[in-house]
Automatic annotation (TrEMBL):
One of its GO terms (biological process) is L-glutamine catabolic process. Homotetramer. This is glutaminase. It catalyses: L-glutamine + H2O = L-glutamate + NH4(+). It comes from freshwater metagenome. InterPro entries: Beta-lactam/transpept-like (IPR012338), Glutaminase (IPR015868). Its EC number is 3.5.1.2. It holds the Pfam family Glutaminase.
């Protein structure tokens, strides 16, 4: 066993105790990063612009369901793009991989998240974590009416979070009245037959999805659900079929951090998603979920303190998923059939 693995195991053990030293570790990281003063709070709608740049919360939830939180971890904010992997999961659960793949590709785009651009040969959005792909997966939310579809969306997110969620109406209205690019993207996709002819309804659902109120602890439970094979570790409720977990995690690793995805994969190495509201959630498969909330964003649109916190945790505890520590095994053991 390597030093990092030992550190990680003792970190998990420490999370289980009430006077947990992991709180000390998180407090230390929080204290060392809270003075970071660069970055800008998103200001395209008043509900985001009014966020306090000093807000900074960190939460970690283990696959045993315990959470340790420091700072402003209970501060509510709109989930924005952090919803996108979970809506992709809902589309996969509802329609299966082949159908979803026919509507949304799984390639990093190399373009801004809100680009009005589709894959030229197939007219598909590049991936489900850019706006075009997220509008396409929103189109796949099942239900006979708008009301059914928003209920299905909220109850899916609630399975991950383990509590009742609400759409913040002011944020929804602001998203809707400023969402001209998203409207253009949706109409382009309608033109190519990538989404159904109910564009306004699907856009409303997309704007509502962005406006769901969560806090840092909620996001850490959502991430922990992905870390725990798709079962919410607090409630025991399965939120996604296990066969689709790797679809979510691989797309989060490749595309979850806007135009920083390559460096994120290199430096932090965790499946993750960030949002314009200043959230970052990251998954340590089989171990725990991490969430950070701090509104100031860097030039790539990621929370400055969110990225710094995840880097610090990944480096300190050797969390990079490709940081393979060879422990010695026989080839026969390595080539046993997968559990599916
Ligand atoms: N509501 C935002 C949009 O659709 C989401 C942006 C984000 O968090 O990336 O533009």
């Amino acid at each position: 066993m390597t030093q990092e693995n030992n550190d990680l195991d003792s970190l998990l053990n420490r999370m289980r105790t009430v006077s947990s030293p992991i709180r000390g570790t998180l407090t230390e990281i929080h204290t060392s990063l809270k003075g970071m003063s660069h970055g800008r709070v998103a200001d395209y709608i008043p509900e985001l612009a009014s966020a306090d740049p000093n807000w900074f919360g960190i939460a970690i939830t283990g696959v045993d369901g315990n959470t340790v939180e420091v700072g402003d971890s209970a501060q509510p904010f709109s989930i924005q793009s952090a919803s996108k992997p979970f809506v992709y999961g809902l589309a996969l659960d509802s329609h299966g991989r082949d159908h979803v793949l026919s509507k949304v590709n799984v390639e990093p785009s190399g373009e801004a998240f809100n680009s009005i651009v589709l894959d030229q040969s197939t007219n598909r959005p590049f991936n489900p974590l850019v706006n075009s792909g997220a509008i396409a997966t929103t189109d796949l939310i099942p239900g006979a009416s708008h009301v059914d579809r928003i209920k299905n969306l909220l109850s899916k997110l609630e399975q991950y979070v383990g509590r009742t969620l609400h759409v913040d109406n002011a944020t929804f209205i602001s998203e809707r009245s400023t969402g001209h690019r998203n409207r253009a993207i949706a109409h382009l996709m309608l033109n190519f037959g990538m989404i159904e002819d109910r564009v306004e309804e699907t856009l409303e659902l997309y704007f509502q999805q962005c406006a769901v109120l969560v806090n840092c602890k909620d996001l850490s439970v959502m991430a922990a659900t992905l870390a725990n094979g798709g079962v919410n570790p607090v409630t025991g409720v399965r939120a996604i079929q296990s066969e689709y977990l790797k679809d979510l995690l691989s797309i989060m690793l490749a595309c979850g951090m806007y135009d920083y995805a390559g460096q994120w994969g290199y430096l932090v190495g965790l499946p993750a998603k960030s949002s314009v509201s200043g959230a970052v959630l990251a998954v340590v498969p089989g171990k725990f979920g991490i969430a950070v909330y701090s509104p100031p964003l860097d030039e790539r649109g990621n929370s400055v303190r969110g990225v710094a916190t995840c880097r610090a945790l990944s480096e300190r505890f050797g969390l990079h998923v490709l940081d393979a520590h060879f422990v010695g095994s026989s080839l026969d053991n390595e080539f046993r059939p997968s559990r599916g």
